[in-house]
Design a protein that fits this description.
Elements (H helix, E strand, L loop, with lengths): L10 E8 L5 E8 L5 E7 L6 E3 L5 E3 L2 H11 L7 H17 L4 E3 H15 L1 H11 L5 H13 L2
Parallel strand pairs: 4-6
Antiparallel strand pairs: 1-2, 2-3, 4-5
Length: 151
């Protein structure tokens, strides 16, 4: 590990502990040349996912893109950022457990809608209205009626 102060490549680990989320290890290190201390994080390398878009183009999975869509749908709703991040964590967990390297964007959208339906109905309708691209009031009302009937 390269020292951020002097650039020396050797250091010793002083302290090592898991982060609060238990998804990485925090290490306090001391440079063997300048004796300054710095922190590093060690994280398990994740499997890269590729998203297949509607036009059949492919792009790397972007967690921030999914979270941004959820944040937009949950705007001015009593839902914490932690709850939204939990939704994204759950979706990612399902995607990685499926062991497929490529996933259709439609599958991700459906997973988001399923999670939002259980979390907040207004956020669900907001997300669905953008995701499903309702063409007219009738299709929008049909979605709302389906939500009401599910209760």
């Amino acid at each position: 590990m390269k020292c951020p102060y002097c650039g020396f490549v050797e250091s010793k680990v002083i302290d090592s502990r898991p982060t609060s989320e238990n998804n990485s290890i925090r290490r306090r290190r001391e440079c063997l040349k300048c004796q300054k201390r710095f922190t590093t994080y060690e994280k398990l390398e994740s499997i890269s996912l590729v998203v297949i878009k509607k036009d059949l183009s492919r792009q790397p999975y972007d967690r921030d893109k999914v979270l941004k869509g959820i944040i937009t749908a949950c705007e001015k709703r009593p839902i914490s950022l932690a709850q939204m991040e939990t939704v994204v964590d759950d979706i990612e967990s399902e995607l990685y457990q499926s062991m497929t390297r490529e996933v259709e964007s439609a599958a991700i959208g459906e997973k988001v809608m399923d999670k939002l339906k259980n979390l907040d109905e207004v956020a669900y309708v907001r997300f669905a209205s953008v995701y499903k691209r309702f063409d007219n009031l009738e299709t929008f009302m049909a979605e709302l009626q389906g939500l009401i009937n599910d209760k």
